[in-house]
Amino acid sequence: MKNKIYKSIAVAMTCFFAGCADLEERPVGLLAPESLFNSANDVQTAIFGAYGWIASERLYGRQFVTALMLRGDMVDIGDRGTPAERQQVNDFNMDDNNGMIRSFWPYWYQVISAVNAAIAGADIVDMSDADRNRLVAEARFVRAFSYFHLVRTFGDIPYIDYFITDPESVKELSKTPAAQVYEGILADLVFAKEWLPDTQPSDVRSRPTKGTAASYLATVHLTLENYQQAYNEAKWVIDNKSRFGYDLEADYQDLFRAELANNMREHIFAVEFLGQQNGGGGANDDLMAPMTGIRGADELGWSVCVPSMAVYNTWDDRDYRKGVSFAAEAPVNGVMTPYSQFDNTQRPHIAKYRRYPGNSNAEGRYSDHNYAAMRYAEILLTAAEALTEVNNGPNAEAIGYVNEVRERARNAGGQVSTFPEDVQSGLSKDAFIDLVLEERRIELSFEFKRWYDIQRRRMGDQVFKGPNSLEPQANFDASRDYLMPLPRIELDVNPNLGPQNPGY
C-alpha cells in the first residue's frame, strides 16, 4: 500500500490551494472537483495522498510529534544547540512566530484539503452507493483524525468540511468554536464507523476500519469527559476484538521493531513510513530515530529529545518496558559505553525508534517504522478510566483491563517476571484514576500521548511545578499553555482568524 500512497502525492498537491497554507499565494482561476475526479480510483488516490502527507517530516516524521513530546513531562531537550524553536516549545516560552507551528499548521490543512476534495469527488463520480459510502467514510475518518489533533493543539480553529473552489475565499475564513469542531469530528467518526469495512485489504493497519473509528470515538469522548460514551465505544471494540483482529502483542519490544510493523495486531491505526524512500515536501521523511538517538554513538543520533534523569530514575528497573524504552548504554567507537560517558547529553536516551529502525540510513532516518497512532493497549486503558468515572470507582472489569496490560508487560522477551503486579481491589476512585494515568504514562511512553493526557486532565501545575515533577518548568502557565498560539503569518494574512489564543 505504501508505494501506492507515495505515487498519489502528486494528485493530493492539486488540492493544496483549498487549505490554509500559503495564504499569500494568489492562484489564478478556480478549482472544480469535476476537473480532478473521473473515477473511484481518483477518489482513492486523493485519500492515499492525504496519508502521504501525514507520513511526512512536518507531521509524524518530526515536527508535529516532536512538539507533542517536548510539551509533555516525559521528554526534555538534550543538546541545547538544537534550534531555538524546539527549546521554546519545551520550555513554555514560545511565541506566535514559532517555526514548528508554522511548519505543521499548514500541513494538517493540506491533509484536510485532500480529503475534502475526495469527498466532493465521490459525490460526482459514477459508482455504487456502497463504494461511495466506503470512500467517503475513509476520507471523513482522516478529516476527523486531523481536526482532533488541531483542536487539541489550538482550540478554536477554522473548520472546513467542504471543497473550496475559490482559493481567495480562504482569506476570509474565521475560527470555529472548539465545541463545534468536536461536533464535526464526532459526526465524521460516527459515519466512518457505520460505513468502513471490518478490515482493509491485506489487513493493513494504516487505513481505518469500523474498529478504528470506534476507538477514536472512545478517545474523543474521553477527552470531552463524556465517560459513558467513551466506555461504550471502547467496550464495543474490546468485545469485537476478534472481528477486527485486535490483541496485545506478546512481547512489548516487538511493537518497536520496524521490520515487524506491518499488519501488527495491536495496531488499530498506524502511520506508515517506507524505508529508504522520500518525496517532495518532506513526504516519507521519518527523523524520529536520529532526533531521539545518541549524539556521538556508533548508532548515530542528535540527542534532541532526551528524557530527564528523573523520568529514568523513577521508573522501576523491574519493569521490562523500561529496558525497551531507554538506551542506558550504547557502543561508542566499538566499546559499550554507559550514559554517564556519552559525549553530548549524559542521560539515557529514548530507544523505541532508534534501536530497530529497519531499512533506514545510518542515522535511522527514512525508517520503516509504522507509528501506532492508536493501539489496543490504549483502548483497554481508556475503558478502565471511563468505566471508573461512570461507576464513581473501580470495579473488577476496570481493574481487569489494567491487569491485561500489566500481564503483557511481565513477558520480558519470553521470560515471565512478577513485575508489574496485578492491581488489587480496594482503591478509591481518585487513586485508581491516578493509577490508570500512570499506567498510560509508562505503557505509552514517548508515543506522543502524554501531553494530551496532561492537557485533558489539567495536570500542568502538578507535573511541571509540583514537588514530584519529572521535568520542572517554571514558565508553565495554566491560563496560556494548554493551547499553542496560532501562527502569526496566518493572522497577518487573514485577521478574521483572530483573536490570538490567550497569553500570546
TrEMBL record:
Gene3D superfamilies: 1.25.40.390. Belongs to the SusD family. Pfam families: SusD-like_3 (PF14322), SusD_RagB (PF07980). Residues 343-504 form the RagB/SusD domain. Residues 94-222 form the SusD-like N-terminal domain. It is found in: Cell outer membrane. It comes from the Bacteria. This is RagB/SusD family nutrient uptake outer membrane protein. It comes from Negadavirga shengliensis. Signal peptide: none annotated. Keywords: Cell outer membrane, Membrane, Signal. The keyword Signal applies.
